[in-house]
Amino acid sequence: MAVVLTDEMRAVLAELQPATSPEELQALMSRLAAPLQSFVREVMEPDQSVTDTRTELQDLYLLLYSDRVALNAVGFTEVERQRLRDAVRALLTVDGVFTKQIRFGEWRPRSVEEVCKASVPWRGKLRVKAAQAFFFDDAKVATYQDHNATGTLEEEELDLKTLVAAAKQDAAELEAVGFTADDLREGERLLAEAEGRDILGVIGIRTQADMKLTRNKLLTLCVLLARHARTAAASAHWNNPDAAARFERVSFRNAIRRIRPARATNGASSGNAPTPTPVTEPVDA
User: Would the pTM of this model clear 0.70, i.e. be above it?
Assistant: First the structure.
């Protein structure tokens, strides 16, 4: 029988939504820096789909909320629940990009040349719209004529800062000739990419390997925090088997596994302990 979510349960689950901006993800990762360093002694990889683990984490989070009074009595406070919440949100953010972009071959770091070329259509649209909006103001039109003459990331960043700032200042005039709020947001996105402040760049992710390692670190942290929460629940309900059983049903037994060691290239044992290396094949189907 399917579980019917109440409005209260939906509100609790809404707390686990992925970050929606670079600044939000950066804030999450900043708060998680200490637990990542302290608790994650060995980075694991998924042993089941991250979607299944996400469901388990959501189920546990609902239980932690409904039993918060009993858990608080044994020292599992709002601080611990918030830490788990931050870890889950960061995991879902990074894994969402991993799943939707890398898995379907749509994501890879852009070269400097590609970053500079990406803004050309946007610059062109802004230039012609400004030429119409400020036809009788030569100085204003000249403001929008910038192009990246050197092809460097430094000039790209400087130009986009100038153009985005001018477009914000002249938003009303530009909107009147068809340069929309969405167009302005596109310029801000291009600037964020040039500055390395996109949703992943803010936390140092520049390659697929960076993304996978970060995803696995966050997954490992989430599972460790979830298992810690279950031990707190066992303590809080040590004399209430029915209440304890609710937490026991949320199992993270198959959530993560140790990174598979690299195999010797010649097929023979080298006699040395193999160095663990992340696998390259994605786990999710």
Answer: no
> In DSSP terms, which residues pair with 261 in a beta bridge?
276
Q: What is the pLDDT of residues 89-132, one digit of tens each?
A: 999 999 887 776 656 555 555 667 878 888 999 999 999 999 99
> Cα-Cα-Cα-Cα dihedral of 170, 125, 155, 196, to 10°?
90
- How far apart CA 163 and CA 182 sit, in angstroms, is 15
The secondary structure of 7-52, three-state, reads HHHHHHHHCCCCCCCHHHHHHHHHHHHHHHHHHCCCCEEECCCHHH
Looking at this protein, which amino acid is placed at residue 115?
Answer: V
Amino acid at 56: E
Contact 73, 243 (CB under 8 A): no
User: Contacts by 139-147 with C-beta closer than 8 Å and gap 24+?
Assistant: 140/170, 147/123
DSSP state of 45: E
Nearest-CA neighbor of 16 among 49, 46, 59, 52?
Answer: 59
Name the 3-class secondary structure at 257.
strand
The yes-or-no verdict on residue 271 having pLDDT over 50 is no
Handedness of CA 171, 176, 180, 181 (dihedral sign): positive
How is residue 111 annotated by DSSP?
A: P
Dist. CA 81–CA 75, nearest whole Å? 11
Task: Give the C-alpha separation, 17 to 42, whole Å.
Answer: 26
Phi/psi of residue 261, each to 5°? Answer: -70, 155
> What's the residue count for the chain?
285
Beta carbons of 16 and 55 less than 8 angstroms apart: no
Question: How far from chain centre, in Å, is Cα 267?
Answer: 38
Six-digit token string for 19: 């970050």
HEC letters along 48-108: CCHHHHHHHHHHHHHHHHHCHHHHHHCCCCHHHHHHHHHHHHHHHHHHHHHHHHHCCCCCC
Closest to 228 measured CA to CA, from 91, 71, 94 = 71
